[in-house]
Amino acid sequence: MVSCFWLGALGGARAQASLSGVVQDSVTHQPLAFASVFLANTTLGATTTEQGQFEFPKVPAGTYNVVGSYVGYRLAKQSVTIARAPQQVTLLLGATGNRLGEVVVESTPNKPEDYQKFTEQFLGRTAFSDQCRITNPKDVVVFVNDSTKDLTARARKFVQIDNDALGYRVKYYGLRFASNDEDGSLSFYGEPVFEEMTPRDEAQRRQWATNRAAAYIGSFAHFLKSVYNNRVKAEGYLTQQITVVENHRFELTDSLRRTLLAQRPDGPFSKAEQDSLKKWARAVPVSATLYPADRPIDSLRRVSADRQHTYLRFTGELQVCHFGEAPDPKYGKPMATLGPSRKPYPPLREVSRLRLEAPEAEIQPNGSLLNPLDVSAGEYWGFEKIGEFLPLNYEPPTAAALPAPAHTTPNP
Fold it and tell me: At how many degrees (to 10) do helices 250-263 and 271-281 cross?
């Protein structure tokens, strides 16, 4: 299961409001001129005036992190919820000073194999990820703990990624990346800002539009938007419940098996011992049962009594299948089973899996999660990474204008 951190999309007209404010030194409260201010996970960015002021005239409704950046200062961020009324914020940035950690960072270059592993896990292994590159590798510090086998990565300011597949330049501020091959865990989060790249010609502009739509359709962001708008089936999704049961006897049986093998690694074993070893080898720490029936919308979401809040909510784990688009040709394993059905399922599909890390997760009007760490995703959505990363204010085309999917080769 992979922690997901991310994306949303806007569809159609919605409430907007202005956001303005000032960036100041946290101690002197003097304005910081020409500081960078952006709304994380969007293309909305600004530079402060000589008086440290900034303004975003039209911000779609939703909750955002407003982030301020200035040379010689630590990042400052503040959460703000946009509805219809204008909002004002004050960002107070603290000076960094001289820190020993910065000297250590510059004197310790990354091991090539560690950096390569980080880029593969961070950018991903999809066809779109192959067209991404980190343009400031020297600003990234990768560390592997020999005891825990944890791989972590940080950046002194930001990681800059040029995505030539989608036409975005992403500056990923405050990166916190961690992975562990032994337990399969991977998570990263931070405050990215998107910049539109300039296409070299009209053909590239059209290709970027096609690729962006392909990245959005069937994505976790698309699914959240479908749940929020009660259009799960209409958008081509099948949702199925998975019940996971922990085997409380697994540790005991596995210990017995390992003890017996350690005592007599070459045997011989009696008939009873052979039967026990076979039985113990079949034991698993957890078992999962898939219920093929499509889940009704009321089992996926809860809408507050005042209709102002919508939550993703389900029991156990959720398997989510999107029909109509073939998976990325680099997805190297078969899709999870959907169980028996009276009608055959369409061959083109992408199957993912969700687990709630909280009782429920609030979906914002802009199609993102209020707290991205409330949900973990695995299977196909766990395979997609930065290569498919879209800003919150990406507006997908209407169904009639959708381009053909970029991936046309069915997964075996």
Answer: 130
List Cβ neighbours of 308 (8 Å cut-off, separation of 6 or more). Answer: none
DSSP state of 282: T
Query: 39 near 69, Cβ under 8 Å?
Result: no
Q: Answer positive or negative: Cα dihedral of 41, 44, 49, 53.
A: negative
pLDDT tens by residue, 183-236: 888 888 889 999 999 999 999 999 999 999 999 999 999 999 999 999 999 999
Q: Exposed, middle or buried by CB within 10 Å (0-12, 13-18, 19+), for 277?
A: middle
Cβ-based burial of 145 (10 A; exposed 0-12, middle 13-18, buried ≥19): exposed
CA-closest candidate to residue 2, choices 357, 367, 387, 363? 357
Residues 6+ away with beta carbon under 8 Å from 206: none
Interstrand relation of 168-180 and 185-196 (parallel, antiparallel or unpaired): antiparallel
Cα–Cα dist 132/135, whole Å: 9
- φ, ψ of residue 89 in degrees (nearest 5): -135, 155
HSE toward the beta carbon, residue 180, CA cutoff 13 A: 11
Helix count (H) and strand count (E) of the chain? 7, 22
Q: In the predicted model, is pLDDT for residue 143 greater than 90?
A: yes
Paired residues of 166 in beta bridges: none
- From residue 71, give the alpha-carbon distance in Å to each of 32, 68, 250: 10, 10, 54
Q: What is the mean predicted confidence (pLDDT) over 16-43?
A: 95
Q: Are 405 and 214 in contact (CB under 8 A)?
A: yes
In a 10 Å sphere around its CB, with 0-12 CB exposed, 13-18 middle and 19+ buried, how is residue 247 labelled? Answer: middle
Closest CA to 374 of 386, 358, 363: 358
Q: Pairing relation of β-strands 62-69 and 76-82?
A: antiparallel
Low-confidence winner among 34-43, 63-72, 74-83, 256-265 (lowest mean pLDDT): 256-265
pTM of the model: 0.80
By the 10 Å C-beta count (0-12 exposed, 13-18 middle, 19+ buried), 187 is classed as middle
Based on the number of CB atoms within 10 Å of its own CB, is 231 exposed (0-12), middle (13-18) or buried (19 or more)?
A: middle
Element (H, E) at 210: helix 202-216
For the chain, give the mean pLDDT. 87
Q: What is residue 102's predicted lDDT score, i.e. its pLDDT? A: 44
Residue 171 burial (CB count, 10 A): 22
Neighbours of 317 (CB within 10 A): 19
